[in-house]
Every structure is written in C-alpha cells, then in structure tokens.
Design a protein that fits this description.
The chain is mostly helical. The chain has 16 helices and no strands. The protein has two domains: 74 residues, no CATH class; 235 residues, MetI-like fold (Orthogonal Bundle), CATH 1.10.3720. The longest helix has 39 residues.
Length: 324
C-alpha cells in the first residue's frame, strides 16, 4: 500500500503541471486583459499608461515566460498579488474559504444523510408506491434548473412570506445580538443556500445508491442470507450496504473539490462572500493570479479526491487492497 501511495503522489506532480499549463493558456485566450478592464472607463488613460500597466503586471512578456514566472512563485506557495486591489491572492482565498467550506460541507452532509437511506429503501421496496414517488421526485430534481428554483424560493420565503433572509450570511445588526440570536441568524441565512446546493447532489446520489443496492441484493450471497433466516435489516445494512458503497465512495472523493471551489452561481445569487463569488469577480476583472490560484487549488483537490476514493475502496473491500 505504501508503494502504491508513493507512486500516486509522484504521478500527481506532472498532472498538476499539465493542468496548470493548460489552464494558464486557456484563461489568456478570451479577448480583453486586466489592463483593458481597468482602463476602459477612464477616458484619460493614455497608450503609455496602458503600456506601463502591462509592464507592471508582467503582461508584456511572452506567454511562456509569464507561466515560468508564475511557476517559480507557486513552488514557494506564492500565488502572487491580485490585479484588482494589489492584495495577496493567498490572503483573499483564506478570507473566503471558511464561508464556502461551511456551506458546501453542510450541503454534502445533508446529501449523504438523506440520499443513501432514500436510495437503499427504494431499492429494497422496488416498484412500490414509495419507489415510484421518489423516482418522480428525483427526475424533477434532475431536470429543474437550480438557479431558477433558488430565485423562486427567494421570492416565496424571503419577499412574500418574510421568513428567511435572501442575501449574505448574517444580518446587518448582528453586533447587537446575543450568542443565541447570532446562531439563529446564521442558520436562517444558511437554510436556502445549503438546501438549494444540496438538491442536485441529493437527486443524483439517491439514484446511484438505489442502482448500486439493486445490483447487490440480487447476488447469491444475499439470497443465502435471507434463506438462513436473517432479518431484512441485518441483511441490508450489515451485508449488502457495505458492498453497495463502492460507487458512492467515488462520488464522495470527487466531491472534495466542491468544498473549496464552491458554487459560483449560488454565491452570486445569494450574495455570499465565498470562493465561488471571488472566482466570478476575478474572471470578470481578468484577475489572472486569483483565477490561477483558485483553479490550482481545485486541481490539487480533484487529484486528492481521486486518491482518497481509491484508498477508501481498499478500506471497504479488502480484495481491492490485496490487489494493490
């Protein structure tokens, strides 16, 4: 196992290099540059001033030289400075990470708490009324645009009923609240973003759980367990579920990048100061260092997620661990 982990970790180095190289090229392809974005509203910006800005940001150098300079900084974990406000990219990322982590972690927990039991119960009660109703609900969840649903819920619960806030993560007068009121205020602000973010994952994971469980409960050893007189609860949760978790573990591993990347659309809709909103504003401003910083973190987490999924396979199924 140690040799396998070492090999995978070493293979991550060229993969990260290739991902960052492609990403660096792609973000420079769209028309427009940070200099043009910053000077388009200024009629007094001369051509010389624009050239000075290009030299200041290093944009006058060939693209491969810019990438090499960026790569030298990354080796020392320096993402550079933002072209928007001159702040360190790492500081801006650290400010937005906690908010995104909270929202995405709560969404992920909500998804797994609801989706796995829902899928398992649907599989063990195949073609029942519950299974049919849940299937229809899942297809609705798949097909419904989440940003559209978010706007509808904002109008219903925020504007018409006034039950929930529709923007930010805390109220303006939070400094005047006591501890309990602050916690309740944060919960109210998180209900809509967390619920909407979890909707798509809930629909997909419940279907994965159902199909995986259906495949497992048709195996001979499950029929043997039933023939021995074991209770259905013991057969499903002690024998079948463990083997049905393998495809679910893959989804869990690939969900790690979302914990940092966040939801660009939802954070914009709900005006949440997280990683998604930072990424969106950076793209609009052509803030190359910030864009590369966020995408690099996402790439690393994606590779780590794949590795975690493979390790989890070995923990769930000893046969896979033996083969490695």
């Amino acid at each position: 196992m140690f040799a396998y982990l070492t090999k995978r970790l070493l293979l991550m180095i060229p993969l990260i290099f290739g991902i960052t190289l492609i990403t660096f090229i792609v973000i420079h392809l769209p028309p427009g540059s940070p200099v043009e974005v910053q000077t388009e509203m200024s009629l007094k910006a001369s051509a010389q001033a624009k050239e000075n800005l290009k030299k200041f940001y290093g944009l006058d150098k060939p693209l491969h030289i810019q990438y090499i300079d960026w790569l030298k900084r990354i080796v020392t974990l320096d993402f550079g400075k933002s072209m928007v406000d001159g702040r360190k990219v790492w500081d801006k990322i650290l400010e937005t990470i906690p908010v995104t982590l909270i929202i995405e972690s709560l969404s992920l927990i909500l998804i797994f708490i609801i989706a796995i039991p829902l899928g398992v119960y649907s599989a063990t009660r195949q073609y029942s009324l519950f299974d049919k109703v849940s299937t229809v609900g899942v297809f609705i969840g798949f097909s419904m645009p989440e940003f559209w649903l978010a706007l509808l819920l904002m109008i219903l619960f925020g504007v018409q009923l006034g039950w929930l806030p529709i923007s930010g993560i805390q109220s303006i007068d939070i400094s005047e609240m006591n501890s309990i009121e602050r916690v309740l205020d944060w919960i109210k602000h998180l209900i809509l973003p967390v619920g909407i973010t979890a909707l798509g994952g809930l629909a997909s994971l419940s279907r994965y759980s159902r199909s995986s469980m259906l495949e497992v409960i048709r195996q001979d050893y499950i029929k043997t367990a039933y023939a021995k007189g074991l209770k259905e609860r013991d057969v499903v949760y002690k024998h079948a579920l463990k083997n049905a978790l393998l495809p679910i573990i893959t989804i869990l591993g690939l969900s790690l990048p979302g914990l940092i990347g966040g939801s660009v659309i939802f954070e914009q809709i709900f005006s949440i100061p997280g990683m998604g909103r930072l990424f969106f504003s950076s793209v609009m401003a052509r803030d190359y260092p910030t864009i590369m910083g966020i995408l690099t973190i996402g790439a690393i987490l994606t590779l780590i997620g794949n590795l975690v999924a493979d390790i989890s396979y070995a923990l769930v199924d000893p046969r896979i661990r033996f083969q490695k």
